[in-house]
Amino acid sequence: MDDPEFLSRLQFAITIMFHYIFPPMTIGLGVLLVAMEGIWLKTKQNIYHQLAKFWTQIFGLIFALGVATGIVMEFQFGTNWATYSRCVGDIFGSPLAAEGIFAFFLESGFLALLLFGWDKVGPKMHFFSSCMVALGAHFSAIWIIVANSWMQTPAGYKLVTENGQLRAHITDFWEVVFNPSTVDRLTHALSGCWLAGATLVISVSAWYLLRGKFRDFGEKGIKIGLIFGLIGLIGMGLTGDSSARKLVETQPEKFAAMEGVVETGPDLPLHIVGWMSPETHEFTGISIPGMLSYLTHGNTTTPIKGLNDIPKDDQPPFLIVFYSFHIMILVGCALAGLILLSLLAWKQGWLFRTKWLLWLLVLSVLGPQIANQIGWCVAEVGRQPWIVYGILRTKDAVSPILTSGEAISSLIMFFCIYMLLFSFFIYQLTHKILKGPKVIEAETDDNGHGKLQVPFINH
Amino acid sequence: MFESIDLNLVWFILIGILFSGYAILDGFDLGTGTVYPFIKGDINKRYLLNAVGPVWDGNEVWLIVGGGALFAAFPFVYATVFSGFYLAFMLLLLALILRAVSIEFRSQQPWNWWRKTWGAGFSTGSIMASILIGVAMGNITRGIPLDTDGNYTGTFLELLNPYSILLGVTTLFLFAMHGCIYLIMKTEGETQEQVKKILRPCMFGFIVLIILHTIVTLLYIPHAREGIAQNPWILILVFMAAASIAMIPVFMYKGYHGWAFLSSVSTMGCMMSIFGATMFPHLVYCNTNPELSLTLYNASATTKSLEVMTVIALIGVPLVLAYSAAIYWVFRGKVVLTERSY
């Protein structure tokens, strides 16, 4: 419990998971904002202007939390994982720097225009800013996933020993960028982000409809959300499938843990729902015979590596990965069912008056959040005991001078401040949602240039 | 691709530019936070918040990019400094988080206690960040003890030595002065009058402290003295810094606020250049055994990696400078509060 490695892992997990509540929503919502504002420019219908303005406000709040928690990530490799930084800095640093130069400047610069530029620039320029913010968010996803994918499936490097220490040196930048898992993992993560943004809009809009408020606003929101949700779903299905198929070659240990393969062999069943014994890893539940082998290799004769053929030292935590993976799949399927059903209901015209379906849509915002978090658990816990797969073990990567006292202090500090931030975030988000779009619109109506408007003055 | 160019030197300078950019840009945000408690009246406080509102997070990106570039170009420095200054750095992160969310939350609710609390968060975060940045710079100037693997061998409390704390307080006054000048440019009327009153003690305090700091550095930091002895041209930078500082009150008195701000920018630029030139070729000076110091050659990434980074910078930096300048242009002039303001 009190060793710096465990504490650093826990701290990284807490800080990255908390951070990852926000970027998926801004990445997804950013795209929806572009759509809303684009439709407004094209149709000149005021309702889309209202949508864009309201959701920009929400975007600003989520973005601020994302920035505040994101800065921690940039420096934690140095503070807690100094040996890792020295070992792979030659390769790992450049995607991080590229993320800053290509993504963060773009996002934060144009965000100023997005949030505060409604009266300062023309509608087309404002629309352009929305596009740049969304583009910046996607660039950021690209570079950080390049960096992370390199840790999963390293490529474009050579290993050298300097002063008795292992170092990975870059040999080919494009091999680093397009390492075997980058494209699948990037598209998979982005699909998750689009779903997170889409369900946020769907959820709030459905709630307005249930309350009988802002009808037109809510219906339009749900429609836009469902369309982007569908795109996200299709992306999810395609990329999930190809990720898993690639994984069996690149990281067989992770694959075995995800699918619960204990004994190596052909003709393996696909576990759907069930329970796994912590000692024997015996599975009890519903499985489809032969399906795993078929989905993986297209036949039932090629063997798949199981846990028992993996040396004890190289085994990832089996149960965590197994359960996380299956919960992710189940949540994903439920979400897919819900979105497809809602699309059907929309087409047949009964969506907006069916209360139980709207209630499910209100809850839908949790789906991508759970699946995104737990999906990253699969990816990161499944890579253990390695920090860089096959090169450096997590236990050898921690800062050599870090004491458990220091690690505990920072861990407690982050835990407390993040709990506090989370409650304020939820409070503030609820407040904005309760206030709704109409109020904002009314405030805007008589707002002239240069006129001083100060709501809520306290004297 | 860049055979004839010393890329290590290029990146030594580029990292210096990135961190100077951070100090100059986020310096006025942090300075605004520092003087915020001394401004009376909710509306005046809101003018302050909104003067930095659209730009602070873009300014903070300079720190993030500086950190990323340091990781990429000098991974050994990145690992040594951040693991060595662990607790100090965690406090800096805490301060920056507090500053960020306080700006976002403060004006969202009308209640007095809410605004007071987040206002306190804004100023505490800003003050803490300014001092910690100065303390970190102080320790880098002074040198830190390292072992043969490049790990810091001191403790957290040793980082809080008088020399570094002096630079911490100097930085606090410098940012506060810089922030005031920025605010005078961005506000008018009563708010501006209040800020002008605060500028005087900040400027006076900074001038006294920077003279003290210079004397102490020359007396007690032998390698800094040697650095200047070997490169006497550094004295030109010192004179430029002194001239820039002297011009601030002159421009302020004449009412040329923009020029006063440029003088303040130039002051910070000169100070950072003096810092870089005296440190050269060290990035982290080991004060127990100078042989173990991290330099721009022994602590860098491979040439191949520096080449990649140089291409990234050549593509990215001109774009960043162009649209950042355009965005600052859009938000030029005095702050006006609207319903979307903080």
Features:
heterodimer; A: 459 residues; mainly alpha; two-stranded antiparallel sheet; two-stranded antiparallel ribbon; globular; disordered C terminus; B: 342 residues; 13 helices; 2 strands; 1% strand
Query: What is the makeup of the main sheet of chain B?
Result: 2 strands, antiparallel
- Written as H for each helix and E for each strand, in order along the chain, the element string of chain B is HHHHHHHHHHHHEEH
Order of strands, main sheet of chain B, comes to 1-2
Gap between N and C termini of chain A:
52 Å
Give the number of domains of chain B. Answer: 1
**Helical coverage of chain B, percent range:** over 70%
Categorize the overall geometry of chain B. Answer: globular
Mean pLDDT of chain B: 90
Please work out how many helical segments of chain B DSSP would assign. Answer: 13
- Detail the poorly predicted runs of chain B: none
Summarize the structure.
The complex is a heterodimer of chains A (459) and B (342). Chain A has 459 residues and is mainly alpha-helical.
